[in-house]
Amino acid sequence: MAVKMSAEAEQIMRERFGKDSVLALATEENGIPSVRYVNAFYENGSFYVITYALSNKMKQIEKNPAVGIAGEWFTAHGKGISLGFFGKAENREIAGRLREAFASWIDNGHTNLQDENTVILRVELTDGQLLSHGTRHELHKKL
Q1: What's 126's DSSP letter?
Q2: Distance (Å, rounded) from C-alpha 48 to C-alpha 30?
Q3: What is the C-alpha separation between 72 and 85, in angstroms, rounded?
């Protein structure tokens, strides 16, 4: 289920996170939470992360796709979905936007975009709160 938010909240999300943004991503395994920072890009109710398919976060998301995500005056829940290999044809459009958003570091050698284990993680937001200039915007589950 995607998230429903006001037009104002969507605009704030795009302005604040529609670029390379460092966010905290929480997963769990056997009742034990794990939190790590990730570089993420926001678009249309989801965050996108380039990551390694064999990483602990992806193993944990495979078992339980429920995640938490937090950033600048923002906190939410979501569903983690692997879109698969960064270079596959179906990912061409979002991969292009990620290349642009992450241009300052994407080719620094840390990420091998030719490795089939380099994947795109989509965090589809389900609910959350966004604070901006004293206003709290609620993000609700769509029914």
Answers
A1: E
A2: 25
A3: 29
pLDDT tens digits for range 14-26: 999 999 999 999 9
Q: How long is the chain?
A: 143
The tokens for 90 are 């179906």
**Three-state SS across 5-72?**
CCHHHHHHHHHHHCCCEEEEEEEEECCEEEEEEEEEEEECCEEEEEEECCCHHHHHHHHCCEEEEEEC
Task: Enumerate the β-bridge partners of residue 80.
Answer: 123
Distance CA 140, CA 143 (A): 9
CATH for the stretch 3-141: 2.30.110.10
- Please name every residue paired with 140 in a beta bridge, in sequence order, or none if there are none: 4
- Tell me, yes or no, if the pTM score tops 0.90: yes
Domain boundaries, the chain: 3-141
pLDDT in tens, 35-76: 999 999 999 999 999 999 999 999 999 999 999 999 999 999
Q: Residue 34 corresponds to which tokens in the numbers above?
A: 């794990």
